[in-house]
Amino acid sequence: MVAKRLLDNIGRRHTAIIGQTRSGKTYATRFILKKLQGQGIHTIFFDPKHDDDYADLGVICYTPMQVYAKLLSKTPKIIYRPNPEKNKRQEELTRVINLAFEVSKTKGYKRIKRVFAIDEVQLMVKKGGNDGIERLWTVGAGQGILGLAITQRIQLLNETIWSQSENKILFKVEDRPEYLRSRNLDHYAELLPYFQAPENRYWFYATVGDGVWKKHPPVGEKKERTGSPNNMRRLRLSRWQS
Ligand SMILES: Nc1ncnc2c1ncn2[C@@H]1O[C@H](COP(=O)(O)OP(=O)(O)OP(=O)(O)O)[C@@H](O)[C@H]1O
Ligand SMILES: [Mg+2]
């Protein structure tokens, strides 16, 4: 599962997901996008890795024109696999974002709410900024297009994305504690050993922009309700039985 409050906010505000390799970012993103799809929100998953593990997130497109056709036919779930060449994939991202904006202004499409998730966003950001990303994170929310950016280190993240993402989701990260403190994340720096412990694999730390940060269990698992009356009873019973 994933906390309802967090999920609802990802459908309303921009989101940044950060964590070192294998920490569970893309897996969590997939889980979140599927939940949002279930609520009728349209999604685009921009996947520079062309990762077949995540191919069930929608219809796969390889050119901006293919995306345009899917947007016009109101296809709710789209995957975009950009050209592997750096300059081209940066351009393609901007083109796909611009198409999503164009369609969102067209009569008959205005009410569609969309979450645009970008995996490995550091690959997309060039010096001086990526126009598409700047546009999405500054004016997207007002037009029903929300961004969700995924990357490995806070330090690698584009400043606009970091400052304009009310929802921040941190898995274990490689950023140094001093760097985390410089970003007012002292509380997270202190919790790093917790997130790095093998028994807490795939746990994450998140805020929805209200200044409150919480630890969350891995997506996909039911929350354990230790201490609930039922659990206590089961505990007592098992002790009785042994
Ligand atoms: N909550 C989870 N429950 C079960 N398995 C998980 C969970 N999260 C991640 N995994 C597994 O851990 C592995 C790494 O997860 P994932 O691909 O999400 O990492 P990542 O942070 O996106 O890494 P990278 O930066 O290398 O892309 C995958 O094999 C995935 O199936
Ligand atoms: Mg990944």
Attribute tags:
9 helices; binds magnesium ion; nine-stranded mixed beta sheet; Rossmann fold; binds adenosine-5'-triphosphate; 9 strands; 242 residues; single chain; alpha/beta; 39% helix
The beta-strand count equals: 9
Question: Which strand order do you get reading across the main beta sheet?
Answer: 3-4-2-5-6-1-7-8-9
Assembly status: single chain
What would CATH call the class?
Alpha Beta
Shape, please? globular
The radius of gyration computed from the alpha-carbon positions, rounded to a whole number of angstroms, is: 19 Å
Order of helices and strands: HEHEEHEHEHEHEHHEEH
What is the strand and helix layout of this fold?
Layout: H1 4-10, E1 15-18, H2 25-38, E2 42-46, E3 59-61, H3 64-72, E4 77-80, H4 86-104, E5 114-118, H5 131-139, E6 145-151, H6 159-164, E7 167-170, H7 177-182, H8 186-196, E8 204-207, E9 214-216, H9 229-241
Parallel strand pairs: 1-6, 1-7, 2-4, 2-5, 3-4, 5-6
Antiparallel strand pairs: 7-8, 8-9
Helix pairs in contact: 3-4, 4-5
Bound molecules: adenosine-5'-triphosphate and magnesium ion.
Adenosine-5'-triphosphate is lined by residues 19, 21-27, 152, 202, 218-220.
